[in-house]
Amino acid sequence: MIKEINNKLKRFKLSGVAKSLESRNKYAIENSLSYLEFLDLLLEDELINRQSNSFKQRFNKSKLDSSKILSSYDFNYQPELKKQEILDVCSCRFIEERKNIIFMGNPGVGKTHLANAIGIEALKNGYKVLFIHANDMVAKLISAKGDGSYFSVLKQFLGVDLLIIDEVGFKKIPLNYVDEFFEIIRQRYERKSVIVTTNRPFEEWGNIFGDVVLASAIIDRLIHHAHIFKITGKSYRIKGLQKVKTDNL
């Protein structure tokens, strides 16, 4: 009987129920559950299974790093960064409000880690997320123009609920690529959220993009509805190097 029911469940694509049916049936008999209580348990198993599968699929597409989570970020090393404010944005309310987040600071202070951690929390809340380096994003769009997949690639960047653009300013964006960057920001403006990490102050973005007017237009759209975090502490990489030196003494 169980085998026949499982075959039917698989045809209906109820894999969560199929996985737990035998154990749930035994539990229901031992605890004298009603039909409705038994059904509720099975439906809960199916829901959990679907949520788990959805998270895995969205995580694989997101390009996020599973090791860079909030609990592994050392707030004690960045005392001026207010932990409660970071916890607040991790609720992902900013995505519903279509706001942006900008992390500014020198290399190594944990900007990418925090952006990644918020992305993980967004996935947990059911959102679609994509993490990409700023120059890779632009290069991918330019390449897509050459092979005819431009609108498909553009849709990837515009379709996610949260787009994380890492290391804006790490390398200068070639002038003929700037329009592609602006197009992403323009189309997401007040529609969907963006997280940007950058090691350069806004005053230097004109040099990054090679066009002061276009840089101003990008900045204006990013900061209009944004949480801006300026991290001024020391580099974690230096911290790790110092620890190695100390351990070797």
CATH class of the largest domain equals: Alpha Beta
Provide the succession of SSEs: HHHHHEHEHHEHEHHEH
SS elements, strand count: 5
Radius of gyration: 23 Å
Q: What is the third-level CATH name, the topology of the largest domain?
A: Rossmann fold
What level of helicity do the residues show?
55-70%
State the distance separating the first and last CA atoms. 69 Å
**Residue ranges: pLDDT <50 for 5 or more in a row?**
244-248
* Helix and strand composition category: alpha/beta
**Global morphology:** elongated
Widest sheet, order of strands? 2-3-4-1-5
Portion in beta strands:
5-15%
**Can you say what the CATH homologous superfamily of the largest domain is?**
P-loop containing nucleotide triphosphate hydrolases
Q: Any chance you could write out the topology, listing elements then pairs?
A:
Blueprint: H1 2-11, H2 15-30, H3 35-62, H4 83-89, H5 93-96, E1 100-105, H6 111-124, E2 129-133, H7 134-147, H8 150-159, E3 162-168, H9 178-188, E4 193-198, H10 205-209, H11 212-223, E5 226-231, H12 236-248
Parallel strand pairs: 1-4, 1-5, 2-3, 3-4
Helix pairs in contact: 1-2, 2-3, 3-6, 7-8, 9-11
